[in-house]
Design goal:
The chain is of the alpha+beta class and about 500 residues long. It is about 45% helix and about 10% strand. It holds the Pfam family SET.
Length: about 500
C-alpha cells in the first residue's frame, strides 16, 4: 500500500490515463480535481444535461475478489474470509509488483493520516470514555469504555451511552455503539486472515500500534469508504450485503451529498453513473453513500454534513432507564423494545409509545396500539353528561401533559449533555486535548513508517498537535449539531397543542 502515500504530485492525469487504458468511459465534460478542505471530487467542466452518462466502468475493470490472485489466497482459504477483509489484505500485503499496475488508481485514495484525523475507530481509546478519572484508564486498551463522570468528547451514538446495553442489532441507520461495532468487525476481519498471511505479519497485526496493523487499517478503511454494492449479474445476491462488494476505479471520486445529483446503476456491461439533473460549469457532481445520519457518516466515512434534514440520534438508554421488567416485557411482546430516535421534529412514534406506557393503564395502552383508543382525543359521551365530560376532559389533559413531560425530559437530557460536553471541550487545556485525543509518539511514528525519513521529535509533536486539534474540532461540531437538534425538537414539541 506504499504506492498510495506519495500524493504531493497531482494524481489526476495518471488516473485518467489508467482509466483510458482500461476502457473506463469518463465524460469529457467532467474531471476530477482536488479542492482545499474537500479532497478529490468530480466537477463539471462543461454544461451537463439530465440523463447524460458521466462514467462507465466495464465489468472487467471492476476490482472484486476475482482479481485477487490465487497465489495470495487460494480457493479454500477464501471461503472463510469476508470480501472486505480479503480485498484489504491484498491491497496491504499483496505483491508489490502486482500493485505497481494499480498505483495510478491507488494514488487517489485517502492517506492514512486522513483517516486517523477524522475516524474515531483510529483514535486514542481515551476519547471513547467520559472525561473524569483519566489516571485509571489504559492508553493501549481496546476494551469497551466504562461509564464515568464528567463529559464525553465523542457523542453517545458512537460510543453507546444513550443506547440499550442489551441491544446489539444493526439497523438502517447504525448500531448500538457504532465505533465499538466497527472495531469488533475489524478485529474479526484480522482474525479471518490467519490462513493466508505470513505468521510474522499475522502476529504483528495483533499489536494495535504496529506498522503492519496501521498498514492494514489504511487498506481496510480505503475499501470501506470506496466500495460499491455489486453482485455479478446472473449470480445470487449474498444474504450478507457486505459480501456484495466491488471497487470502481474513477467512480470512487464522487463526494457525498444528502441530495445527490447523479444516479448509479450496474448491469452486465458494468457500473455507470448518469446525471440526475443539469450541471453548470464548475459545479461539483455529488453522489449519495446511503440514507445515513451524521453519526454513521462520521463513523464510516470520517465527515459530518453541515446540513442534514433527516439527522437523528438514538436515545434507547434514556427512554428505557425508568422502566421496570414488566414494562420492558410488554414493549418486547408488542415489538416496541429499542430503536428510539430523536429528530428535529421531536421523538419518534416508537418513543412516544414508551411514554404512553408510563401514563396509561395496560388495557388503554394495548388498545391504543390496536388503534381502538386515542389518548389525545375527546371521549365520546352523552350530550347531557356535562359534568362527566368536564371530568374526562381534565383527565385527558392530565394524561397528555404527563406524556409530553416524559418525552420532554428525554429531549432535555440531550440538550443538557450537549451543553455540558461543549463546555468541557471548550475548557480543555492543550495538554488534556493531547492526552485524550492525541496519539502516542510511537503510534505516530508507526503510522508514518513508510515516510522517506525518520520523523524528528519536533515533527512528531507537530503532527500530534495538529491531529488532536482536528479531532477536537469534530467533537465540538457534532455536539453543536446535537444541541441544535435537541433545541429544535423541544421547540417543535412545545408548539404542539
Amino acid at each position: 500500500m506504499n504506492v498510495t502515500e506519495n500524493l504531493d504530485a497531482d494524481p489526476v492525469p495518471e488516473l485518467l490515463r489508467y482509466c483510458q487504458e482500461r476502457q473506463v468511459y469518463i465524460n469529457p465534460k467532467i474531471c476530477p480535481k482536488r479542492v482545499e478542505g474537500r479532497g478529490l471530487g468530480v466537477y463539471a467542466t462543461g454544461r451537463l444535461i439530465k440523463g447524460e452518462r458521466l462514467i462507465h466502468v466495464p465489468t472487467a475493470t471492476l476490482f472484486t475478489t476475482r482479481r485477487v490472485p490465487n497465489s495470495f489466497a487460494n480457493a479454500h482459504a477464501r471461503k472463510s474470509i469476508p470480501v472486505h477483509a480479503l480485498l484489504a489484505a491484498y491491497f496491504a500485503f499483496g505483491d508489490d509488483e502486482q500493485h505497481r499496475s494499480l498505483a495510478p488508481w491507488m494514488a487517489t485514495w485517502p492517506k492514512l493520516s486522513d483517516f486517523t484525523a477524522s475516524m474515531p475507530m483510529t483514535w486514542n481509546p481515551l476519547s471513547r470514555t467520559g472525561v473524569g478519572n483519566l489516571s485509571s484508564q489504559k492508553l493501549d486498551s481496546e476494551a469497551p469504555p466504562s461509564e464515568s463522570s464528567g463529559f464525553s468528547p465523542i457523542p453517545p451514538p458512537l460510543i453507546g451511552s444513550y443506547l440499550s446495553f442489551n441491544d446489539s442489532t444493526m439497523d438502517g441507520c447504525g448500531s448500538t455503539t457504532l465505533v465499538s461495532a466497527q472495531l469488533s468487525k475489524f478485529r474479526a476481519h484480522v482474525s479471518s486472515l490467519k490462513p493466508i498471511l505470513d505468521s510474522e505479519v499475522y502476529h504483528q497485526l495483533q499489536d494495535p500500534y504496529s506498522p503492519s496493523r496501521y498498514r492494514f487499517i489504511h487498506a481496510w478503511l480505503c475499501v470501506n469508504t470506496r466500495c460499491f454494492s455489486y453482485t455479478t449479474p446472473g449470480t445470487k445476491r449474498p444474504s450478507d450485503p457486505n459480501e456484495a462488494m466491488a471497487l470502481c476505479p474513477g467512480m470512487d471520486l464522487f463526494n457525498h451529498a444528502a441530495t445527490p445529483s447523479v444516479k448509479t446503476k450496474y448491469d452486465r456491461s458494468g457500473y455507470f453513473t448518469v446525471a440526475d439533473r443539469a450541471h453548470e460549469v464548475g459545479e461539483e457532481i455529488l453522489f449519495n453513500y446511503g440514507h445515513h445520519v451524521n453519526d454513521v457518516l462520521w463513523t464510516e466515512y470520517g465527515f459530518l454534513l453541515d446540513e442534514l434534514s433527516y439527522d437523528a440520534i438514538r436515545i434507547d438508554k434514556l427512554v428505557l432507564a425508568g422502566l421496570d421488567e414488566k414494562q420492558r416485557g410488554l414493549l418486547e411482546h408488542h415489538g416496541y423494545l429499542n430503536d428510539y430516535w430523536l429528530t428535529k421534529d421531536g421523538v419518534c412514534w416508537r418513543t412516544e409509545v414508551v411514554g404512553w406506557l408510563s401514563v396509561l393503564s395496560q388495557n388503554q395502552w394495548e388498545s391504543m396500539l390496536e388503534g381502538n383508543y386515542d389518548p389525545e382525543a375527546d371521549e365520546t359521551i352523552g350530550k347531557h353528561q356535562v359534568s362527566e365530560k368536564k371530568i374526562l376532559k381534565r383527565k385527558r389533559q392530565g394524561l397528555v401533559a404527563a406524556h409530553r413531560l416524559i418525552c420532554a425530559s428525554w429531549i432535555a437530557r440531550v440538550e443538557k449533555d450537549a451543553r455540558v460536553s461543549l463546555k468541557g471541550l471548550s475548557t480543555m487545556s492543550m495538554a488534556e486535548v493531547l492526552q485524550i485525543l492525541g496519539d502516542s509518539d510511537s503510534a505516530i511514528r508507526n503510522q508514518r513508517s513508510h515516510d522517506v525519513h525518520d520523523l524528528s521529535d519536533a515533527e512528531v509533536q507537530e503532527i500530534k498537535t495538529k491531529e488532536a486539534r482536528e479531532r477536537h474540532a469534530m467533537c465540538v461540531k457534532r455536539w453543536t449539531q446535537l444541541l441544535e437538534l435537541g433545541t429544535r425538537a423541544r421547540e417543535a414539541t412545545e408548539t404542539v397543542k
